[in-house]
Amino acid sequence: xxxxYTTREIKQKYDDSASKYAxxxxxxxxxxxxxxxxxQVGKASGAVLEVACGxxxxxxYYPTECELTAVDVSPEMMTHAKQRAEKRGLExxxxxxxxxxxxxxxxxxxxxxxxxxxxxxxxxxAALGEMQRVVKTDGRILLIEHGRSNNRLVAWFQDVRxxxxxxxxxxxxxxxxxxxxxxxxxxxVSTRRTFLGIFHEIEAQ
Length: 205
Ligand SMILES: C[S@@+](CC[C@H](N)C(=O)[O-])C[C@H]1O[C@@H](n2cnc3c(N)ncnc32)[C@H](O)[C@@H]1O
Known about the structure:
Layout: H1 7-41, E1 47-51, E2 67-72, H2 75-87, E3 92-96, E4 109-115, H3 124-134, E5 135-146, H4 152-169, H5 177-183, E6 188-194, E7 199-204
Parallel strand pairs: 1-2, 1-4, 2-3, 4-5
Antiparallel strand pairs: 5-7, 6-7
The structure holds S-adenosylmethionine.
């Protein structure tokens, strides 16, 4: 197992890199993430919780009827998200909160959205457990995740570089999102894998 980081260390990494993150985001959008965000986030409805919203890259894709609450652990990332929401005239209830200990009652939300986060949470299974706890029984959990490729060469490279990559933003790019869901006791109702098997669109109930 490689280096693990605490939530405090991860918060610091994102606080320090929030401005640079906007550029990295443009690269991600360029390689096709935009399409995945539009498709997945567009399915949200009702009272929505976005877990680890970052700079708010998903905000533009929510249907207008959604009532959005967004949490993140990094105040600097959230500052960017607030500016983005303001620019778009979106009303968002922002709260600084740890994904692994959400400050919401059970079954509060119709939809929980989280994107590109299971790679970073120190305990992704705990975070999935929290998403499961706060979503209504008939609600939906919508995820876009990235992880270990199903191409052997790419997966080998990800394994070799995992520690070095994680040093930047605490992102463990060779985690396996579907295995994490299974360990958290969540059954996906739909999954789609793209881009050399690296990206996953996952819907769970
Ligand atoms: C790779 S970024 C993804 C941001 C955004 N979801 C997106 O799709 O662009 C990971 C985000 O997770 C946040 N984060 C990491 N650990 C967290 C935790 N334990 N609780 C809440 N947010 C966390 C970071 O601050 C960062 O904003």
